[in-house]
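Title: Request for sanity check on Phosphoribosylpyrophosphate synthetase prediction

Description:
We are preparing a figure and want to confirm that the structure record we downloaded matches what your pipeline produces today. Could someone re-run it with the sequence below and paste the raw structure tokens into this thread? We only need the token string, no images.
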Amino acid sequence: MANLKYKYATVLEAIQNLRNEGYEVDFNLEENCLTCSGNSYTVNDFEIEQVYRYEGDTNPSDEATVYGIASKDGLKGILVTAYGAYADNASSAILRKLALKNH
């Protein structure tokens, strides 16, 4: 289950605080996995530990979500998604995992 212990004012503040908590690498979203430093992580290879969601005051397209992620091989990192940015490229399994942790 995602840990929503803090609410930060901005995406940058959330990222900085996650870095302070040891989330050191940057994950990228690919079609069927997350990637980082040449490694690929399928849905079963990582857990979402923290989630922070941001919505623009006047424009829904300003939405962003910051995820604190831990891989099973010990990496802790951050994934930032923007409104709709991952919907066209990611598999349904990845989208389900991100959506479940986003609520």
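Thanks, this matches our download. The chain has a mean pLDDT of 80.
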